[in-house]
Design brief:
By secondary structure, the protein is mainly alpha-helical. Helices cover about 35% and strands about 5% of the residues. The protein has a three-stranded antiparallel beta sheet, with no helix packed on it. This is DC-UbP/UBTD2 N-terminal domain-containing protein.
Length: about 130
Amino acid sequence: MGCVSSSPVEEPAAQNGPFDVPGTKDKPTKQYARPKWKSQEPMTLSQLQKRREEFWDTQPHYGGDRNIWDALKAACEAEPETCKLLIESAGIIVAAVDMSVCYDERGAKYELPKYVLSDPINLIKDQ
């Protein structure tokens, strides 16, 4: 059977050159937003760092791949552009824009609390 209406297939490489250019109208870049949150009790930066260290030390023991946890930790501590590159290179699927829920290529779920993703708005400076 034939096709009723068809048009010739255009090669994307012919339009954009040999490499895909991120940020074009055909392929927009994905930005991950850091969540804004307020802790129930105001905390200092040192207390926040301690909570983050406890999370990263214990969370990998509850499942998932250690390499994915390491990539997520590096992405949480990186600038937005570097974060995006780390996420993509590790093959992490971000299910929530704020990165609070992620999956690896095998389908394992990784949940990140807000305190590892960003600082609270009521953060107290250390004295």
